[in-house]
Amino acid sequence: MTRMVRFYQHGGPEVLRIEDVDLLPPGSGEVQIRVKALGLNRAEALLRAGSYIETPTLPSGLGLEAAGIIEALGEGVTDFAPGDAVSVIPPQSMVRWPAYGELVTYPAGLIVKHPQSLDWRTAAAIWMPYLTAYGALIDIARLRHGDAVVITAASSSVGLAAIQIANSLGATAIAVTRTSAKKQPLFDAGAADVVVLAEEDLATRLGEITGPRGVRVVFDAIGGPMFEPLTEAMAKGGILIEYGGLSREPTPFPLPAILGKTLTLRGYLVHEITGHPVKLEAAKAFIVEGLEAGRLRPIIDRTFAFDRIVEAHRYLESNEQFGKIVVTV
Fold first, then answer.
1. Which candidate, 137, 188, 141, places its Cα nearest to that of 322?
2. CATH 3.90.180.10 in the chain, residue ranges
3. What residue ranges in the chain does DSSP mark as E strands?
4. For residue 110, which of 89, 260, 266, 280 is within the disulfide window of CB 3.0 to 4.6 Å?
């Protein structure tokens, strides 16, 4: 038996329960991990609420990120040993491979020996944000030295990872945030410029920052009316990568900018990286090397105990956080 978080109906954070669950030994090609910390993600709140791209059979577990110690190995696993400190690559299905538990099972291909310098909280906050940002900025957009990249939802863990990756490549990271409360923290986190939506006109401000060259890359989690000023500020031949859709308002199709500037609008899911072995290995190498060199470092906002998972989800939905929310087990 092990304790796991599950929900029996869709709804708010209050539907989450911690209960004892029978867990089978790891099967062929699997490893079992004694979890030390979990990283929370917006996708988990969406699954719980019934609005995620994956539809679970209830009751369901959830969770995409964990770090801990290998407890047991399934048949055929030779690259790991009991006692290894590891972290988990987000699976394509958190319903099939949930992370919110004291003991969890994963395919060995989704397990990484993270740098020994990382503590458990930091190790649980790596893979979703950095893989997401890597796939968009490096694999798709081919971000390069001197590029201007606009990063919306910049205070999220993915946004902050994108700022760090852009800086590591010599690009100019322009952060977009709702209010001035997070303006200075974003500068402290490495943003070259910060645009505050509540106080500034987005297109005008981006034009002032980038001048006639415009913005080559936009990394957007929001959609909605922001599409028009974003595309207005983009350079000819630029690319806008949409990985979220947080806005509750309709998203316009900015036809004049798209045609006039020959822009590319690209939907993106991190599964494009995690489901492609060659791309995943390249991403892992880039991220581990960046962590070891100190160029990449997850920013953790708050930590909650496992028994306070409901409170942690309430805080996740408050949008007050700056960086990652972590749960210790």
1. 188
2. 2-126+298-328
3. 2-7, 16-21, 30-39, 65-73, 85-88, 103-107, 111-112, 148-151, 172-177, 193-196, 215-220, 234-242, 264-267, 300-305, 324-328
4. 89
Q: What is the DSSP letter of 80?
A: -
φ, ψ dihedrals at 38, nearest 5°: -125, 145
Q: Using CB atoms within 10 A of its CB, is residue 81 exposed (0-12), middle (13-18) or buried (19+)?
A: exposed
The overall pTM is greater than 0.70? yes
Helices (H), 221-298: 227-232, 255-261, 271-274, 277-293
Class of domain 2-126+298-328 (CATH, top level): alpha beta
Rg of the chain over all Cα atoms, to the nearest angstrom = 20
- What CA–CA distance (Å, rounded) separates 60 from 17? 10
> Can you tell me the mean pLDDT for 221-238?
94
Compute the average pLDDT of residues 252-270. 95
Closest C-alpha among 269, 11, 316, 35 to residue 139? 269
Ranges in the chain annotated CATH 3.40.50.720? 129-271
CATH of 129-271, one of 3.30.160.20, 3.40.50.720, 2.60.120.10, 3.40.30.10: 3.40.50.720
The bridge status of strand 30-39 relative to strand 103-107 is antiparallel
Query: Would you say 305 and 163 are in contact if contact means Cβ atoms under 8 Å apart?
Result: no
Rounded average pLDDT over 108-129: 92
Residue 184, H or E segment: helix 183-188
CA-wise closest residue to 26 among 76, 65, 63, 61: 76
Return d(Cα 122, Cα 299) in angstroms, integer. Answer: 8
Mean pLDDT across the chain: 95
pLDDT at 195 over 90: yes
